[in-house]
Write a structure and sequence with these properties.
By secondary structure, the protein is an all-alpha fold. It contains 16 helices and no strands.
């Protein structure tokens, strides 16, 4: 068998194991999956890094400066002193997963992004089927579950009214994996790939989402459908302008949301957004109040693991599920602005590249960050999925731009 075919299958299989054990690590019985996950990450990086052209990824230098270099300087000068060992550990994991995203993006850009999505779909299908058999308890009264989800009556004493996590410690994690499975299945169904499996997965993931009674997937799917119709616009110039209007709306929302949770302005609009985001806005305001008492809102408290903050700092009384809130709390207002400027510039280049898949996944990535902390977050399932596609599209655009510039120069 050809060496390249063997390598491709080896990478697919290793990535599939990584996805499976990552999901397993969030359950009540992780079975040592956290260690296996790090081993799989190391194997993938070692197998792929020598093929990567890092000249195509110069934009990650900004992320490294914001998340590693500047925090290290601030730790040395004593600005960050809230559990610096945890901050240093976070920086190592951040570097490792950023490198993994780059390696996977470079590999699947050359092979096929369709293949990357297929690996995710098959792996999550096996994961959720395995958990469904082990933990059982799935409720098929879907109309009832849907009504509870919409009305937000999800925590009643009646057993069928309660949210179900199917082994996951957090029911939103079931919704997260199910949503990614739904996205992959819809993508393959539209592109007429894995038709039978995709149809089964759409039904299965929808059932799991309703059992988790999470409202986030409904918002995401509506936005993705809207983005899909934008991708059908034939005139490239009009499509480019419409995509950038969406980008401007994302920027505007991020700015308003940040202003509201920092100022704690309890207006009617604040209440509407707070209810829509399941109290994520008020949690952010509480976190900023704490930040002002222990540190500086301009610099934050330093990079920290997203699960360490609610457990060790807030004693599980406050969660920071929103990426904007997380970055203001950890790297301060300055770091948050720089992170999101970098993100939005990447999105602009994605739009400029003309990739419809890149546009849809970028919008999905940003929208998910409103409800869960995902943006450039190490070990985040959404980041691993989305950033690989985003980086791949971006690298492809940069490579084509270099070729076009070279051609124009020769002319």
């Amino acid at each position: 068998m050809d060496y390249h075919i063997q390598l491709n299958r080896y990478i697919d299989f290793t990535l599939g194991i990584l996805i499976f054990v990552t999901g397993l690590s969030y359950t009540e019985h992780p079975l040592g999956s956290s260690v296996i996950r790090l081993v799989m990450v190391a194997i993938l990086i070692l197998a792929l890094i020598r093929h990567v052209n890092f000249n195509q990824y110069k934009f990650v230098i900004y992320l490294i400066m914001i998340e590693i270099v500047i925090p290290l300087i601030l730790i040395i000068f004593g600005v960050y002193n809230l559990n610096t060992s945890q901050s240093l550990m976070y920086m190592v994991i951040f570097s490792l997963y950023l490198l993994l995203d780059i390696c996977l993006a470079d590999f699947y850009r050359r092979i096929s992004l369709h293949r990357f999505i297929n690996v995710w779909q098959v792996s999550i299908t096996i994961l959720l089927a395995f958990l469904a058999i082990i933990y059982r308890g799935i409720n098929l009264n879907l109309k009832y579950l849907f009504s509870l989800t919409i009305s937000n009556q999800r925590y009643g004493d009646f057993l069928l009214a309660q949210r179900y996590g199917m082994g996951f410690k957090n029911v939103n994690t079931l919704a997260l994996f199910s949503t990614i499975l739904l996205v992959c299945s819809l993508y393959n169904l539209i592109n007429r790939r894995l038709l039978i499996l995709s149809f089964v997965d759409i039904v299965m993931s929808s059932i799991f989402i309703l059992n988790a009674e999470s409202r986030t997937p409904f918002v995401l799917i509506i936005i993705l459908i809207f983005c899909y119709f934008i991708s059908l616009i034939r005139r490239k110039k009009i499509k480019f302008y419409v995509k950038n209007i969406i980008l401007c709306l994302e920027t505007l929302f991020a700015s308003i949301f940040t202003y509201m949770f920092i100022t704690g302005n309890t207006s009617n609009f604040y209440s509407v957004i707070d209810n829509f985001s399941s109290r994520r806005l008020s949690y952010g305001t509480s976190a900023i109040s704490y930040l002002r008492s222990v540190g500086n809102i301009f610099w934050g408290v330093g990079p920290l693991n997203s699960s360490f903050i609610p457990e060790k700092i807030f004693g599980n009384t406050i969660t920071l599920d929103n990426s904007l809130e997380y970055y203001v709390f950890t790297v301060g207002l300055l770091g948050c602005v720089l992170i999101f400027v970098c993100l939005l510039l990447i999105f602009f280049k994605i739009n400029k590249s003309g990739s419809d898949l890149g546009f849809i996944i970028s919008t999905f990535y940003f929208t998910y960050s409103i409800f869960e902390n995902t943006i450039f977050l190490p070990v985040s399932v959404v980041s691993l999925f989305c950033l690989t596609i985003i980086f791949s599209v971006l690298e492809d655009y940069n490579a084509r731009k270099i070729i076009d510039d070279s051609y124009n120069y020769l002319q």
